[in-house]
Specification:
The chain is 30% helix and 29% strand. β18 and β19 form a beta hairpin. The structure holds glycyl-adenosine-5'-phosphate. Glycyl-adenosine-5'-phosphate binds next to β11, β14, β17 and α9.
Length: 440
C-alpha cells in the first residue's frame, strides 16, 4: 500500500513519543510491563479524545433533527450475538508458525512468518474475536456474556424502544459512542488496532427504496467531517469494497481511508446493511422490528445505512495529520496544527514572570475564558520555552500577561500557526477569542 505522498519515515515513532512525553497516551499498566496492546489516555489525551467525540456528537446528533442518541450496555447475552451473526462469522483465520510457534492472522502475512521467516504453518482455524465472560457468580447455562465487539447492535435491539418513545419516522438515525472490544490477533500500530477501543456509530433507518441515495449521502458527509476538522484532502480518500470482500451483513461498504505512515488504511466504514439486522433480531427474538407507515398504511422493515467510526483511531489520524516540524526564529519547533475544536487546550494563559503582581491579572484572564475554553496555566520557565511547549501539544492561542498589563489592562495573544502576536484589551478578550474560533 503506497501512500499518496512522502511521509517522514519516523512520523509514527515521533507521534508515539510525543503522545507519551506530553500526557496524551500511555501504555496501560506500564509499571507492570504493559498489558497486551491496551492504552490509557492521559490528561491531554482525555481532553482530545473527548473533543473528537464531542465534534462527532455535535455534527451527528446535536445539529440534526433526524438523529437521536442512546448509550447501551457493553455486556450482552449470547442471543444478541447469535442473531447478529457475530458468534458464527466474526472470526479471523488463525495460523501458528511451525518453527517459532508465533500466532498470526493468515490473511495478513503472505505465507511468510514475520518473526522467523518460516513458511511452514498449521492449518488455519477460525478464531472468534469476541471476549467471552461470565455474568453473575454461577457458571454455565445463562451466565455467558460477551463484551460487545461493536456498538451497533444496541441501536437495533432498541429500535422499538426508540420508535415508541420519540416521534421519528424513517429516514432517521440512532447514534452511540462507546467502548467496544475485539480480541484482535495482531493488534498493531499504536492505537490504530487495539483490543479495547472506542467507536462512534450511527444506524440510519430508511425506506428500502431510498437506501442507495442515503448511502451516498453519508459517505459524503463523513468524508467532509474529517476535512472540516483539518485533515488535508491529500491524506484522505474513499475506497469502495469489492462485492466479494463485503462483511456478512453488507450490501455495499465504502471506507474513508487515511494516509497512515504505513500507507492507506481504514479510518471509518460506511455500510449499507440492508434489512439484515432488524430481520435477524425480529426472527430470533420473536419481536417484530418494523415501521408502520400510517400514510401508506403499510408495514416494512427499514434498511440501515451505517457510518461506523473509531474515536481512538480518529484521534490517532488527527494527531498524525497535525504533526509538523517547522522553523521559528532560526529554531526547529514541533507543532501540532490541530483544529481548535480538537486541541487538548484551546488557550494557555502565561504570566510573563512568577512575580506575585502578575498573578491577580492572570487569574482574572483565566476566569473570563475558562467557562468557554479549555485553558492551561503555566508559569514555569522562559516564555519562549512555554510557547514551544504549547505549540507541541497544539494549543492554538497563548495569552501572555506582562507588567504593562497592570497599566494598560491589555494582554498579548499569540497565534500558534503564524506566531503572530497582537495586543488585546482584557475587556475584549472573550469576544476576540470567540471571533478567532468562529463563535460569534
Ligand atoms: N458496526 C460496524 C463496525 O463495527 P468496523 O469496520 O469493524 O465496523 C468500525 O469498525 C470502525 O471502528 C473502524 O473503521 C475503526 O475506526 C474502528 N475500529 C474497529 N476495530 C478497531 C480496533 N481493533 N481498534 C481500534 N479501532 C477499531
Amino acid at each position: 500500500m503506497e501512500s499518496a505522498f512522502e511521509t517522514d519515515p519516523e512520523l509514527l515513532e515521533k507521534v508515539i513519543n510525543l503522545a507519551k512525553r506530553r500526557g496524551f497516551i500511555f501504555q496501560s499498566a506500564e509499571i507492570y510491563g504493559g498489558f497486551r496492546s491496551t492504552y490509557d489516555y492521559g490528561p491531554l489525551g482525555v481532553n482530545m479524545l473527548r473533543n473528537v467525540k464531542a465534534a462527532w456528537w455535535r455534527e451527528m446528533v446535536q445539529m440534526r433533527l433526524d438523529v437521536v442518541g442512546i448509550d447501551a450496555a457493553i455486556l450482552g447475552p449470547p442471543a444478541v450475538w447469535a442473531a447478529s451473526g457475530h458468534l458464527e462469522t466474526f472470526t479471523d483465520p488463525l495460523v501458528d508458525c511451525r518453527k517459532c510457534k508465533e500466532r498470526w492472522r493468515e490473511d495478513k502475512i503472505d505465507g511468510v512468518c514475520p518473526k522467523c521467516g518460516s513458511t511452514e504453518f498449521t492449518e488455519a482455524r477460525a478464531f472468534n474475536l469476541m471476549f467471552k465472560t461470565q455474568a453473575g457468580p454461577v457458571e454455565g447455562e445463562g451466565a455467558t456474556a460477551y463484551l460487545r465487539p461493536e456498538t451497533a447492535q444496541g441501536m437495533f435491539t432498541n429500535f422499538n424502544n426508540v420508535i415508541s418513545t420519540i416521534r421519528k419516522k424513517p429516514p432517521f438515525g440512532i447514534a452511540q459512542i462507546g467502548k467496544s472490544f475485539r480480541n484482535e490477533i495482531t493488534p498493531q500500530n499504536f492505537v490504530f488496532r487495539t483490543r479495547e477501543f472506542e467507536q462512534m456509530e450511527m444506524e440510519f433507518f430508511v425506506p428500502p427504496a431510498e437506501a442507495e441515495q442515503w448511502y451516498r449521502y453519508w459517505i459524503d458527509q463523513r468524508f467532509n467531517w474529517y476535512l472540516n476538522l483539518g485533515i488535508p484532502s491529500d491524506m484522505l480518500r474513499l475506497h469502495e469494497h469489492a462485492k466479494e470482500d463485503l462483511s456478512h451483513y453488507s450490501r455495499g461498504t465504502t471506507d474513508v481511508e487515511f494516509a497512515y505512515p504505513w500507507g492507506w488504511d481504514e479510518l471509518e466504514g460506511i455500510a449499507n446493511r440492508g434489512d439484515y439486522d432488524l430481520t435477524q433480531h425480529s426472527n430470533a427474538s420473536g419481536t417484530k422490528l418494523e415501521y408502520f407507515d400510517q400514510a401508506a398504511n403499510e408495514r416494512y422493515t427499514p434498511y440501515v445505512i451505517e457510518p461506523a467510526a473509531g474515536a481512538t483511531r480518529a484521534m490517532m489520524a488527527f494527531l498524525l495529520a497535525a504533526y509538523h516540524e517547522d522553523e521559528v526564529e532560526g529554531e526547529t519547533r514541533t507543532v501540532l496544527r490541530l483544529d481548535w475544536r480538537l486541541a487538548p487546550y484551546q488557550i494557555a494563559v502565561l504570566p510573563l514572570s512568577k512575580k506575585p503582581e502578575l498573578e491577580g491579572v492572570s487569574r482574572e484572564v483565566l476566569s473570563i475564558l475558562q467557562p468557554y475554553f479549555a485553558c492551561d496555566y503555566d508559569v514555569t520557565q522562559s516564555i519562549g520555552r512555554r510557547y514551544r511547549r504549547q505549540d507541541e501539544v497544539g494549543t492554538p492561542y497563548c495569552i501572555t500577561v506582562d507588567f504593562d498589563s497592570l497599566e494598560d489592562r491589555a494582554v498579548t495573544v499569540r497565534d500558534r500557526d503564524t506566531t503572530e502576536q497582537v495586543r488585546v484589551p482584557i475587556g475584549d478578550l472573550l469576544a476576540n477569542m470567540r471571533a478567532r474560533t468562529n463563535q460569534h
